[in-house]
């Protein structure tokens, strides 16, 4: 019975370390960039990010506790085993974080590149008033408020001549093919 109690006292600090690491991972997942902004330390290319450090600490603490509790190993052997598992799991988390951070993404869709883009009127544009057009831009179909110098009926092809705001464009009719 005394051996079981001594082993429990040895395991407790490692369980606390594992719990702190798990909490760090969960905070990183829930709070994301807000949490990462608190520790604005970017040395090591993501090595010291919340998910990587949390994964390392959780694996180290719980791994060491598991080794100590299930074998006759002491705290030093358990800590070495926990260090090994922490390095492996932390390394996996680091590779995943770097691949996510370096993932290529599409260009951000903005209205600045709309000038000259073709579109179709979906709500009649009255003279000096606003109607609606649909424009395919960067592979997505978007609807914009549209203004023209002359009235343009629904279904007519148009071309954007100017961007008025993030949700409105100036258009002119084009001859349909």
Give a written overview of the molecule.
By secondary structure, this protein is an alpha+beta fold. The protein folds into 2 domains: 2-101, no CATH class; 111-173, OB fold (Dihydrolipoamide Acetyltransferase, E2P). It contains 4 helices and 5 strands. It has helices at 2-31, 33-38, 50-70, 75-101, and strands spanning 118-123, 130-137, 140-147, 157-163, 168-173. The chain has a 5-stranded mixed barrel with strand order 1-2-3-5-4. Strand 1 (118-123) and strand 2 (130-137) form a beta hairpin. Helix 1 packs antiparallel against helix 3 and helix 3 packs antiparallel against helix 4. It is rod-shaped, with a radius of gyration of 30 Å.
Order of helices and strands: HHHHEEEEE
Helix content: 40-55%
Q: What is the end-to-end distance?
A: 91 Å
The shape is rod-shaped
- Supply Rg: 30 Å
Question: What portion of the residues fall into strands of 2 or more residues?
Answer: 15-25%
Count every beta strand, where a strand is a DSSP E run of 2 or more residues: 5
Structural class: alpha+beta
User: Overall mean pLDDT score?
Assistant: 83
| Largest sheet data | 5 strands, mixed, barrel
Count of domain modules = 2
List low-pLDDT spans.
1-6
Major beta sheet, strand line-up: 1-2-3-5-4
Report the total helices.
Answer: 4
